[in-house]
Specification:
Structural class: mainly alpha
Oligomer: single chain
Number of domains: 1
Distance between the termini: 49 Å
């Protein structure tokens, strides 16, 4: 994925009012500073590296799987917890310019992120609908049954045609869940608070038919550049904290859009991974590995990079070819091919059955954490206007 040239050259994490030496790829401080806020910021960035390094070096068989994306969300959730803890302990600086402006920009990105979480939730529901069609295929072509003849193949063919229609219709027309008015958000005080900011659908409605995941993600990525030295100094390091958390948020959303069926995934997203931050390396590695996987597949005909989706699409294609070309009575060789493909498809269906519920629960938990962070942040900023 190309990087935007409009963002300027990424600035290193180098302006905490003291010189920095560089050892390898990671900057380290040449002087000890025992200020608690600076120590918290340094610890936060170190933890970011640890969390994302662990998921960036997983085996190729695990990368982009449901279990892997759950680990990604867990890493993001841990970063968000530490981020909020630092803000809670440093509200004094948060209320002063330019920290208040930087904080407001972050909370605006957080609200935009909720739409992508809702769209991801809808994407999970789509996969569940695929499963219903696939269960019919598995039942019809179960080689353990006494007879495997034309009637069973006609039933399987009908289910495969219905599945193909659903997949194509979803890619062409967008989310089929847009009118269900469901969201991870809860109606009440929180959603009423959000309506005043013009983002009510993020919290109380599914995304509309004309909504674009890629365009929404680009809005979040726009103007996301490392803070300048004077901003870092004026905010006592909070500018770096907000940039780091904003980048993590944007990157995790990018992965969700790449992996899960979402409306309008076709637009290229332009963003720059900053260099010389303590946590840069795992993000470079993750981006490279994900883009390599994307190049191996034709995104125009794929519903997402999720490993299980790729396996479903592959097995469905193979079984459809077998069903369409079958001649009766079936030869022993064809029966064995059917058995092998049905077995592989049953494995991926079982993986989805076991993995989608935990994935959706974790997605909902992160959604609500972002909501709470946004609400608490705006409440903290509101105190700046109190007499």
């Amino acid at each position: 994925m190309p990087s935007s040239n409009n963002h300027g050259s990424p600035m290193p994490f180098a302006s905490f009012r003291r010189p920095i030496l560089t050892i390898g790829s990671y900057p380290v401080h040449s002087e000890m500073n025992h200020d608690s806020s600076t120590q918290n910021l340094d610890t936060f960035q170190s933890k970011v590296f640890t969390y994302f390094h662990d998921i960036s070096v997983v085996d190729a068989t695990e990368l982009l799987s449901i279990s892997w994306i759950c680990k990604l969300l867990d890493a993001f959730s841990s970063c968000l917890d530490r981020f909020q803890a630092i803000l809670t302990n440093d509200r004094g600086h948060l209320l002063k310019p330019p920290a208040d402006r930087i904080a407001t920009e972050f909370f605006d990105r957080a609200v935009k992120a909720l739409d992508i979480f809702n769209a991801t939730r809808d994407g999970i529901e789509r996969i569940r609908i695929w499963q219903k069609h696939l269960e019919i295929v598995l039942c019809a072509l179960d080689t353990r049954q006494r007879i495997l003849g034309e009637a069973q193949f006609r039933r399987a063919r009908k289910a495969l045609m219905d599945l193909a229609f659903v997949m194509i219709a979803e890619k062409d027309t967008g989310s089929m869940f847009s009118d269900r008015n469901r969201s991870f958000g809860r109606k009440g005080k929180d959603s009423h608070h959000q309506r005043s900011s013009g983002h009510s659908r993020s919290l109380s409605w599914s995304v509309p038919h004309n909504w674009s995941a890629s365009k929404q993600l680009q809005l979040i990525a726009n103007n996301l550049i490392p803070p300048r030295g004077n901003e870092i100094e004026a905010t006592d390091g909070l500018a770096t904290l907000f940039f780091t958390m904003s980048f993590i948020l944007m990157f995790v959303l990018w992965v969700l859009v790449m992996e899960i069926p979402c409306q309008d995934r076709g637009v290229q997203i332009h963003f720059t991974i900053p260099r010389n931050f303590p946590w840069s390396t795992p993000f470079f590695l993750l981006h490279s590995r994900i883009m390599d996987e994307s190049k191996k597949r034709d995104r125009r005909h794929s519903n997402g990079l999720l490993k299980e989706i790729h396996q479903i699409e592959k097995n469905v294609h193979q079984i459809t070819t077998l069903v369409d070309s079958a001649q009766f009575p079936l030869s022993a060789e064809v029966k064995e091919e059917v058995r092998a493909n049905v077995y592989e498809l049953s494995l991926v269906c079982e993986a989805c059955k076991n993995g989608l519920d935990p994935f959706q629960r974790q997605l909902r938990d992160v959604f609500r954490k972002i909501m709470n962070c946004h609400t608490e942040g705006l409440e903290a900023l509101g105190k700046a206007t109190e007499p």
